[in-house]
Amino acid sequence: MLGVIDVGGGMRGIYGAGVFDYCIDHDICFDACFGVSAGAANISSYIAHQRGRNHRYYADYAFRKEYMGFGNMLRTRSYINLDYIYGTLSNSTGEYPLDYPAMISSGKRMEIVTTDARTGKPSYFTMEDMRQDHYDPIKASSCVPVVNQPYVINGVPYYDGGISDPIPVNRAFRSGCDKAVLILTRPRDEYRRSTNDRRLANLLTKRYPRAAFKLANRALIYNRQLDLAKSYEKRGKLLIVAPKDISGMHTLTKDRDAMEFMYKEGYEDAEKILRFIG
How far apart are CA 249 and CA 270, in angstroms? Predict the structure, then answer.
């Protein structure tokens, strides 16, 4: 079974959008797909075979004030309007609907990584946990802590899956994958630093102490998982596809030229996948 893991990374996720558009253009088929944060949105469009959809969201919709901005923060206490992105725009009546019927009938396996804000532990949703015009697991997986209020599903508050399981390589192989492709949105040898995470965690400690602890230690988790991914790659079981240059892009950076550069970089880098899968 061939798997793919997209770790997301906010606006840097446009790199993964380029990778998946290449995969659609060249009929590269993954059996099992694991998405974290923006990676879950990328994977949804890939499974639904909607080439170019993700690019439109990053390069066009992301620049709208409704998508993210301080106006949202003042109204809802959340900088990113997840209901606008994965509801208003994505629903069947939206500007660019997710083709949910195509996704659910694809025969592919999909897992979406979230973090339970109460426990700090990862929670995994599947596409069967969604239904037409109800894409809450994607919203929860993309819910950036502090910047957003936690996204609540069935009474449970969730944050971005990147807090608790940022590179779910173990999850993929324990789920039965024989080989996998890992899409990063940082250079493959760039390890996380904890400075910013610890600062944000301090703001979260009072309300969600266990999630705050995981956030403060996210760099440690990410770096260990990156080393694990590299060990799988040395054994020929995994391919890491990662940008050489992120053009100064951070999670919430809105720079159209830099985003277009990363999209093209992702599309070109995806050629490696053809050689990997033989």
Answer: 20
pLDDT in tens, 114-132: 999 999 999 999 999 999 9
pTM above 0.90, yes or no: yes
3-state DSSP call for residue 82? helix
Provide the pairing of β-strand 2-6 with 179-183: parallel
225-246 pLDDT per residue, tens: 999 999 999 999 999 999 999 9
Cβ(140)–Cβ(114) below 8 Å? yes
Q: Residue range 245-254: average pLDDT?
A: 90
The Cα 128–Cα 188 span in angstroms is 32
Exposed (0-12), middle (13-18) or buried (19+): which is 182, by Cβ within 10 Å?
buried
Between the CA of residue 228 and those of 52, 189, 275, 277, what are the distances in Å? Answer: 32, 13, 22, 20
- The answer to whether the CB of 82 falls within 8 A of the CB of 139 is yes
Backbone angle region of 246, left / alpha / beta, with phi > 0 → left and psi within -120 to 50 → alpha: alpha
Bridge partners of residue 122, in order along the sequence: 115
**DSSP string covering 195-226, please?**
HHHHHHHHHHTTT-HHHHHHHHTHHHHHHHHH
Tokens of 48: 């639904």
Query: Contact at 8 Å (CB) between 82 and 148?
Result: yes
